[in-house]
TrEMBL record:
PANTHER family linked to this entry: PHOSPHATIDYLGLYCEROL--PROLIPOPROTEIN DIACYLGLYCERYL TRANSFERASE, PROLIPOPROTEIN DIACYLGLYCERYL TRANSFERASE
Protein name as catalogued: Phosphatidylglycerol--prolipoprotein diacylglyceryl transferase
Keyword line: Cell membrane, Membrane, Transferase, Transmembrane, Transmembrane helix
Its EC number(s): 2.5.1.145
InterPro entries reported for this sequence: Lgt
Domain of life: Bacteria
Bilayer topology annotation: Multi-pass membrane protein
Binding of a 1,2-diacyl-sn-glycero-3-phospho-(1'-sn-glycerol), residues: R141
Amino acid sequence: MILNYIHWNVDPEIFSLGFLHVRYYGLCFAIAFMLGYYILEKMFKSENINEDWLEKLFMYVVIATIVGARLGHVFFYGWDYYSQNLGDIIKIWEGGLASHGGAIGILVALYFYSKKVTKKSMIWTLDRLVIPVALAAMFIRLGNLMNSEIYGHATDVPWAFQFITNMHAWTNGAEPIYSAPSHPTQIYEALCYLATFVIVFFTYWKTKAKEKQGLIFGIFLIGIFASRFFIEFVKNNQEEFEQDMALNMGQWLSIPFVLAGVYFIYNAVKKK
């Protein structure tokens, strides 16, 4: 029996000025990038790393995150639609970003960044970059919460949320239609990503882990994608084709990242 639940009826739009619409999701993205830049700046200064590398890294990551996350959504979750509506692929303002696609986009960008800018191993960069990325992942899930999207199965836990299911119509004046009380999986993921950030942050600053190439990156991969794998069990599938799958798309995409995390930790610890 449900003891308590929350009617979540937050308007995803903060304000609008003519054609300009400012939404919580975009604000969360902006905060994530600003904090990420600040954290990386402190890290680069502590290691006397060329500051020009930071500015270039920021541009590579911003572009790769947005393009990769969008294409990840298009190809992993919505290709049936977008293959027939190619022009809609660029309509990123209508929503549709996939974190796995963003991760792949960053990896591709860092390959070229390492070749052209630092002349160092990709893993050297990733051991530093994943620290602010873990924090950014938390902010993105908070943005999903403000959009009332990517929530979980119906539940009787006392902290269940009732989300508005007709968000577009509601913001245009219609009466809200609420979901059944459901798992606020956006909050579950945000807390796991925050915990991962705290672990890799203190691992970098308080230990000699950055001298063991791949160790911090491996911890990040396991913290982010293992938590994503397990939370998917109480999360609603994003697309209909996932209904008959033993594991959904998010879980299948998480498994290689977790295995890679195990490999990098093992490899880093094994090397003297």
